Amino acid sequence: MPNNKLMEKIVSLAKRRGFVFASSEIYGGLNSCWDYGPLGVELKKNIQDFWWNEMTLRNDIVGLDSSILMHPRIWEASGHVDSFTDPMVDCRQCKARFKADDLPQDKMEKRQCPNCGTKDALTDARNFNLMFKTFMGPLEDDTSTTYLRPETAQGIYVNYLNVATVSRLKIPFGIAQVGKAFRNEITPGNFIFRTREFSQMEMQYFVKPGDDEKVFEEWKERRMDFYLKLGIREEKLRFKEHGPDELAHYAKTAWDIQYEFPFGWQELEGVHNRTDFDLKRHQEHSGKSLLYFDDVSKEKFLPYIIETSAGLNRTMLTVMLDAYWEDEEHKRIVLKLHPKLAPIKAVICPLVKKDGLPEIARQIENDLRPHFPVIYDQQSSIGKRYYRQDEAGTPYGITVDHQSLEDNTVTLRERDTLEQVRLPIPTLLDEINSRLKADWKP
Ligand code: ATP
């Protein structure tokens, strides 16, 4: 399938099945803003839970939920006020806007617009700060200016001593957080890949200086493993190291985990060695000591921080793209989602709308629903019902037929292999639960 078509197909499937809608659609939409529909929220939540469990079902990592609005001086200390900028250029002719970094050298030299082709049309590059500014309280002046956080990390740094003390954590330890971040991106796009409002899943791991390089390597590997566990194909994932000219102002080493999107290899997650840069700066700007006291060695020091920073929405796009499968043989579209990620776990279908079959199917629905999301469907032919759910990524289909009346059994259909087994109704819950828990490979 040509790659550009794949994005169109995913956008269309996402809308058709209620994963993602354009935001403010009845007003013509709002550029790069998206709303998550019933299946989208479930999928996003399942990815988040998967990540959260990976991070916090360990004895050295705890969670935090810090606020989006924080003291504006945090962003001075972090370097975002001065350095969180992208150079942008505009085309005077067609008004298109570009990140200067994305423009090919020859176009920049000729000042030629890559959109309309006009020569000498591009403006000089101007630095544009990506933080969204807002005002706290009724006055709109400099003293009330604050920012929507552009990353969740800083909330962790300024709280790290509180968290360590109350949780009695000893170095090395980590703090995990999932939350919204906002960036006034110059070139948002590619559906939910790059948006101005998005969620990050970040874990900041605090280590003794000197241990940072070893721990960095461990987290790098663990984070790649996470995407494999989500069921993403190995050949579509790779590491990419930031060269010296690409390194962010805070980083000693930075590796991206990249996925091969239809529009090229792009970052999915950043694993960074941020050293003690952030804590040092917060210490300087706040005047408060952020030194960690090691009660074994009796030393005081500023820990180094290994950051793993992933995008939730971007991971969801990756999961959907990677799972998309046109099954030519059976003329169906399937989202081969990891069963744990699937928004709905099972569809329950009476073969016909009569003879007492709907009642049995409703009973199964009621029995399963407290355990995981299920859906009841009696509309149209059984084939069509299954195909609808294949597109939604529902891994299991349960059909109640006339034999069910006689022996209390049903068929259980598996989405990808189309394998069907006949099972006693009372064993369904255990069977589906054990399949959901099993290791899964695409
Ligand atoms: P990019 O260069 O792709 O904009 P970045 O290097 O600025 O990303 P980081 O600051 O390392 O990204 O952010 C960590 C993660 O947060 C990214 O890997 C990505 O998954 C997610 N992310 C960052 N910016 C956006 C955005 N505008 N929309 C959606 N997700 C984003």
CATH topological fold name of the largest domain: BirA Bifunctional Protein, domain 2
Q: What level of helicity do the residues show?
A: 25-40%
Largest sheet: 7 strands, mixed
Strand content: 25-35%
Bound molecules: adenosine-5'-triphosphate
CATH-derived architecture of the largest domain: 2-Layer Sandwich
> How many independent structural domains?
2
Mean pLDDT across residues: 95
Q: Whole-Å distance between the termini?
A: 19 Å
Domain Aminoacyl-transfer RNA synthetases class-II family profile: 8-343
Catalytic activity: tRNA(Gly) + glycine + ATP = glycyl-tRNA(Gly) + AMP + diphosphate
Pfam family, one: HGTP_anticodon
Binding site for ATP: 183-185, 193-198, 267-268, 311-314
Q: How does this model look, in words?
A:
The chain is an alpha+beta fold. It has 2 domains: 3-69 and 151-320, Bira Bifunctional Protein, Domain 2 (BirA Bifunctional Protein, domain 2), CATH 3.30.930.10; 329-437, Anticodon-binding domain (Rossmann fold, 3-Layer(aba) Sandwich), CATH 3.40.50.800. Helix content is 32%, strand content 28%. The protein has 13 helices and 23 strands. The protein has helices at residues 3-16, 38-56, 72-77, 80-83, 105-110, 153-167, 212-229, 277-286, 312-323, 357-368, 382-392, 402-407, 428-437, and strands at 20-22, 34-36, 61-63, 85-90, 97-99, 126-129, 132-135, 145-148, 173-182, 197-207, 237-241, 253-261, 264-275, 292-294, 299-301, 304-311, 324-327, 332-335, 346-350, 374-376, 396-400, 409-414, 420-424. The strands form 7 sheets. The protein has a 7-stranded mixed β-sheet with strand order 3-9-10-16-13-12-11, with helices on both faces. A 5-stranded mixed β-sheet has the order 20-19-21-22-23, with helices on both faces. β4 (85-90) and β5 form a beta hairpin. The chain is globular. The two termini are 19 Å apart. The structure holds adenosine-5'-triphosphate. Adenosine-5'-triphosphate is lined by residues 183, 185, 194-195, 198, 200, 267-270, 309-311, 313-314.
